[in-house]
Design brief:
about 50% helix, globular, about 775 residues, seven-stranded parallel sheet, alpha/beta
């Protein structure tokens, strides 16, 4: 361990704690040492470091030292917005100051989010004009004053408009006109004032379709053709990231890079060279990579594409028609082009119907199950795949025709979006049609909208990460280009050799999490063994309690499946049984709780009953309140007596001070129901030699254990915390009719093993909460 590392760690911990006598924890120093060595040698670290270990500072001090001493840059990725904000607003300022104190050199850092996380002023102006009934083809305001005036005018004009608005190129969903103009005006003003302007900073709830209408994806962006490029908020954020030594991003961007093999972060010419990757909340990365690689094909998609493309043709015809002095010949030519293109697009109705019928017939032949896995020989769109692919080529040609015949900036933007949708759907057709090892394929019926999709998702994510994320192309710096240190010929040779398969430059990779499953290193294609570090919160766990209620005869009757001859646990009856216990526990604690449900249906029941029981004595917040989860969580943190109810989205990355979260209730371990993606992971393991039972345990049970441990970890966040974790699942206890098999039960209990006291008697648990509550200092 270098002296610089020890000095910088000491300085960072003192600054972070405000205690001049504070020292890094032993595990914290060990983690930092491992990361420093990996960065120096371009190797890997996979570390399970429990809550309170100081992972973020342990990871960032070596990264900042590499920047200060060696000029090397680091990407930090998190799963949650809250941890991303913690890095940028709390940890990195402290680390940067500590490293400057030790080395005399100042390092910079920036946040990088996906393009569509930021408001797009061009889209916002266009959407606001439609919703407010303003001229959609008027000149775009390009000055700060012009943008502010436009926002004011749009807000005034929308008051007299219909409530519903459809935005061209955005599908068939109606959005609220006033909500849309409000979001658009906010984004336009953010652009004029050069504020961050991202969705996380929007002051209120905003529906997904509304945000879609005021933002733009990177692939749909007009880039150099945009008249507002100089004020572009996502471009500004990317420029700041390009100049930073440490870039804080999120797993979604890494997932896109891995699944789609596009240089979103690593190998991005606009972001520049990176040398190291630090992945915090690493347990969440594999599922995000799979999600980003997911594709789907349905008749509904084809029909919505046809509808969107037809609207673009209509808008093109309106914008192409001269307003004054138009000759009959010009108008006739425009109408002719419009009629021809709409005729070509009309074929989509028949093709979408044929596709829907084929998928329905395929599902019916397999027994009409909601989800039907596909065998290697299955192709659920064998008859219509060629027609869909051909139709996508027709749509692209229609868009090309529109561009060739002129059109507004708005039309060009919508044409780009349609092309992107065509490309994505074409890839999906290939993915769902053809069996490939490491890819799950299935047909799924969506009862709420009466449609059937053929879907595919990659499950073997290691090769994708190894080939696209853990390596990078060598990118010449501007200084090298300008100084002539590397000739154009050399750079051309490098580019050509890379295209021909030249190995890319390996990055050092650090994976950090409070919980990681066995085999995680292999899953993410890293060579390092998993290292587990001890918790620094031993005393907090000793003061705290685990409660799993023992069962009475009444409980057994209520939780038994009445349709089974042998006593069997009925998951459908569980929420109705658990809700009374949830209310009793929260009452005993006088609020100040986090309630986590394995299902959304159960969570809604708990939230409703808790609100009725609270009677206004404390707030009950939930993830179904119609706002961003981050906003709901912020309100919960601000009110120490409030109760927050949610599902998996609140089981990780959520942090709250002491009394705000003195009671964490889980209704049961969040094991996923059987599904094609995880079944494909099981099949991959069995193909590699594992037994079916062992493979099932490694996938389904291991995932549930990780999430259970993450959820339990919400209770104790510092050495001063104490409280109770409740798991309302009697199957985790021995010797009752529903007990899990011992191997599974042991794994679940390992996630809660650190608590110093365990209570199974419900009455004693309630007494402990009341006593603990009485001893707490007033907020």
């Amino acid at each position: 361990m270098t002296s610089y590392l020890i000095e910088a760690m000491n300085a960072a911990v003192v600054a972070a704690t405000g205690n001049p006598a504070a020292k890094p924890r032993p595990a914290q120093l060990l983690i930092a040492q491992e990361i420093e060595e990996a960065m120096r040698t371009k190797t890997h670290v996979v570390a399970q470091a429990p809550t309170g270990s100081g992972k973020s500072i342990a990871g960032m001090v070596p990264a900042a030292l590499q920047a200060a001493i060696a000029g090397e840059r680091t990407v930090v990725s998190t799963e949650s917005l809250s941890l991303q904000a913690q890095y940028a607003e709390k940890d990195l300022p402290v680390v940067a100051a500590a490293v400057a104190h030790v080395t005399g050199k100042h390092i910079s850092f920036a946040v990088l989010k996906g393009w569509s996380n930021y408001s797009c002023a061009l889209d916002a102006v266009h959407s606001a004009r439609i919703a407010a009934g303003l001229d959609p083809e008027a000149p775009i305001p390009i000055t700060e004053a012009g943008l502010r005036k436009f926002a004011d005018d749009a807000e005034k004009a929308v008051e007299s408009q219909p409530l519903g608005t459809r935005v061209s190129g955005r599908g068939d969903q109606l959005v609220d006109s006033r909500e849309l103009v409000e979001a658009a005006a906010w984004g336009v003003r953010a652009t004029a004032d050069q504020r961050v302007g991202d969705r996380h900073s929007y002051p209120g709830a905003v529906a997904g379709p509304v945000w879609d209408a005021v933002s733009v994806s990177a692939s749909d962006c007009m880039k150099e053709r945009c008249p507002l490029l100089d004020l572009c908020l996502p471009a500004k954020a990317k420029r700041k990231a390009a100049a930073a030594d440490i870039v804080v991003t999120n797993h979604t961007l890494l997932g896109i890079q891995a699944a789609k093999n596009v240089p979103v972060v690593m190998s991005s010419k606009s972001l520049g060279q990176f040398h190291h990757v630090v992945v915090d909340e690493a347990h969440g990365l594999p599922s995000i990579v799979r999600d980003q690689g997911a594709t789907a094909v349905s008749g509904r998609q084809v029909d919505r594409l046809r509808s969107a493309a037809s609207r673009v043709v209509d808008e093109w015809a309106k914008s192409a028609t001269p307003r004054k002095g138009a000759t009959k010949e010009v108008s006739a030519q425009i109408l002719k082009i419009k009629a021809e293109q709409l005729k070509y697009l009309a074929a989509g109705m028949r093709i979408s119907d044929d596709l829907a019928r084929e998928l329905t017939a395929f599902r019916d032949a397999g027994g009409s199950k909601p989800i039907m896995k596909l065998a290697a020989e299955d192709n659920p769109i064998a008859t219509t795949a060629a027609a869909v692919t051909g139709y996508l080529a027709v749509v692209r040609q229609v868009m090309k025709t529109l561009e060739a015949n002129g059109g507004s900036m708005t039309i060009s933007r919508d044409v780009a979006r349609i092309r992107t949708r065509c490309a994505n759907l074409a890839s999906a057709v290939t993915a769902v049609s053809t069996h490939e090892v490491g890819v799950a394929r299935w047909v799924e019926y969506h009862q709420e909208r009466g449609t059937i999709d053929a879907k595919a998702t990659p499950v073997q994510i290691g090769p994708m990460l190894a080939g696209a994320v853990w390596v990078t192309e060598e990118i010449p710096t501007e200084e090298e280009l300008m100084s002539g240190k590397r000739s154009i010929a050399e750079l051309t040779d490098e580019a050509n050799s890379t295209a021909e398969g030249k190995p890319k430059v390996p990055l050092s990779v650090t994976m950090l999490s409070a919980t990681l499953p066995v085999g995680f290193s292999r899953e993410v294609a890293l060579s390092a063994r998993l290292q587990r570090f001890p918790t620094p919160l031993d005393e907090a766990y000793e003061r705290s309690v685990l409660h799993i209620p023992k069962m009475t005869d009444t409980d057994i009757r209520r939780l038994s499946n009445p349709y089974e001859t042998k006593q069997k646990f009925d998951t459908k009856a569980h929420a109705a049984w658990a809700v009374g216990k949830v209310v009793e526990l929260v009452e005993a604690n006088a609020g100040s709780a986090l309630v986590l449900s394995a299902t959304a249906a159960g969570g809604r029941v708990y939230a409703e009953q808790l609100r009725m029981a609270a009677g206004g004595r404390w707030k009950v917040l939930s993830q179904w309140d119609g706002r961003l989860p981050s906003a709901v969580a912020a309100d919960w943190r601000a009110d120490h007596s409030s109760v927050l109810v949610g599902t998996r989205s609140f089981m990780t990355g959520l942090d709250a001070p002491g009394a705000t979260c003195s009671l964490v209730i889980l209704d049961r371990p969040p094991r996923a129901a059987g599904n094609p993606v995880d079944d494909a992971r099981v099949e991959m393991l069995t193909a590699g030699g594992s037994s079916r039972w062992d493979a099932d345990t490694k996938v389904y049970v291991s995932d549930a254990v990780v999430l259970l441990a993450q959820a339990v970890g919400r209770l104790l966040r510092s050495v001063d915390d104490q409280g109770m974790v409740v798991v309302l699942d009697p199957r985790m206890l021995k010797n009752n009719p529903f007990s899990y098999n011992e191997a599974t039960r042991t794994r679940y209990m390992a996630a809660v093993a650190e608590f110093g006291r365990k209570i199974s008697d419900p009455a004693k648990a309630l007494d402990w909460l009341r006593t603990s509550r009485a001893a707490r200092p007033a907020a």
